[in-house]
Design goal:
Blueprint (H helix, E strand, L loop, with lengths): L9 H13 L4 H9 L6 H13 L3 E6 L2 E6 L3 H16 L4 H13 L3
Antiparallel strand pairs: 1-2
Length: 110
Amino acid sequence: MAVTPIHVTEAESEILAALWRRGPLTPTGLIEEVRLAQPWGDATIKTLLGRLMRKKAVRPDRDDGRLTYRALIDRETYLDAEVQALADRLFEGRLERLVAHVGRSRERPD
């Protein structure tokens, strides 16, 4: 799995999420899994998949002669990068300030 952060858009993250949930998937299996979360057409899913392959976040494999796609970035690496990006954008890169803010917001009554 990749250890360096790769910029992944929100839409691309839906493709990765399907692969994290189900592991390597055939093209048909991937489309079906993504459609459980998003009403996208085949072309949209294939475009996002192509972007992820160019970013080296997903790769095609041959599994017993069948084409499958596999995530090359693990979920934890992705989450770490997303949390750090949020901290960078809103809290001058300080994770402790982000965590403190989340803690305070959970203490407030709705």
